[in-house]
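@here heads up, posting the sequence + SMILES for the pyridoxal-5'-phosphate run so it's all in one place. Ping me if the SMILES looks off, I pulled it from an old spreadsheet.
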Amino acid sequence: MSASRNGLPKRPAADVGETTAEVVEAAPDFLTADPRSHAQLRRVALATADAVAAARLQDQPFSGADPAQLAAAIATIDPCPDDGVALDELLAQLRDAVLAHGVHVSDPRCAAHLHCPTLLTAAAAELAIGVTNQSLDSYDQAPAATLVEDHLVRWLAATLGLSGGSGVLTSGGTASNLLGLLLARERAGARAAAHGAGVGGLPPEHVRWRIVASAAAHDSIRRCAAVLGLGTGCVTAVATDDAGRIDLGALDAELAALASAGLEPIAIVATAGTTDLGAIDPLAPIAERARACGAWLHVDAALGSGLALSPRLAPLLDGIELADSITADLHKLWFMPIGASALLVRDVALLAAVHHHSDYLNRPEDEVDGVLNLVGRSLDTSRRFDALKILVGLRSTGRLRMAAMVERLVALAAGAARAVDAHDELELLAEPSTVTVVFRWRPGGGEAPLPDDLIDAVNVAAQRALLRSGRAIVGRTRLHGRVALKLTFVNPLARESDVGELLDLVAEAGRAAARAGVAVR
Ligand SMILES: Cc1ncc(COP(=O)(O)O)c(C=O)c1O
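bot reply: prediction finished. Complex structure tokens:
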């Protein structure tokens, strides 16, 4: 083996042979300047759209397929055969074996989770995201896309009250919460006298740090604390009132207890739209307390941020403008395809805590004349151009229509609560705050009341039976230790009549489970 100019031994190039080159060039697999590749893009896009549409002809939210049979059918699919399968054949197989057995999020009887139908324009923009494959870590991989994301996050920050603020897009609310709490931890670290390390370096003081959140805060807060090296035990759970909002008296007591124990609340997490009750914590009074004790205020508005689109509902978020950071999920009440979330900050300089230079990616000498490398704001390196679909979805729909959709969902939840109240076999467990209704099957009337354990077991069985049949997908959670059912309204296509039908299905399933004598666990 001969040596090259730098003295390193020269290696012969791998002999891939002529056939490989011919095979690679045979089909227009990639979008190029060649019009044949444009025609191919249109063909595959249309064929894919047809397959998705054909799988959506079913008139119920789920096929009810048996999980074992589904797994067996999927196991027969060879992920990478030697020779590619013709697209039409492949799509037909996927349509029948996979797409037809998804949950249909645009069916009004699909109401378990914060899992919305997506605006078609935004979903179609996913094609542009995939084909153009801009990577949002560095300007030289995504020049215009970088500026679009920057423009969008500034608009989102301003819309949520952080005028002059900014942020970064993430894959979801969990990732946004992680980044928000990382910033809080870094600020606490910067304050600690012994702290000298960058991200990930924890000073000895960290054992005294606490993150204060309500008992109804999303589970991801505890997971984030664990990832941040603070342990789940560092999250203190403050009691909530009947509506599921943080109880300010309990918060004051908790902060006082921490102070007298020599513990430091590095962050207070307020939730604007809790997962089960949709409750919005009293943001302004919480901000006051955060300021007084020097804690970072993170508002988890994964759910509630969409309320800002409506001038009528936006006042529910009063006080959010006092946050240091906000989580806003666009894949919830903004009807965007997953993943679409933003971590917003009142000052972009706060994101410096995650800023690192890398010789190959974001060289400081290049960051001049408006050149922006968004890797400096993010925990990701390669990152999708999700800003495009958000921009397309918002601009094509318009604020008024977006607001009308969110308003309808809030009205629908209020109407559903009244319908539950009026139903002989259902019991409302909390007044809805925004878009969720929590209730349970529990027949009233003259009969002797059934024991709570039996009611719990019936509700579990009813929810499962509905999923198994595919006729309705309702949520199940626990409230005050008892099993509760939940309807989550994130589908603007749902009507009051659908809600009535859904409640009747739940009542019927409850009755059937009770008749069948479910086992009490
Ligand atoms: C209040 C709240 N925060 C955060 C999350 C996590 O969001 P994601 O599922 O996008 O990670 C959820 C999810 O439902 C949520 O309800």
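MO: Residues 216 and 274 are 6 Å apart (CA to CA).
MO: One more: The mean pLDDT is 93.
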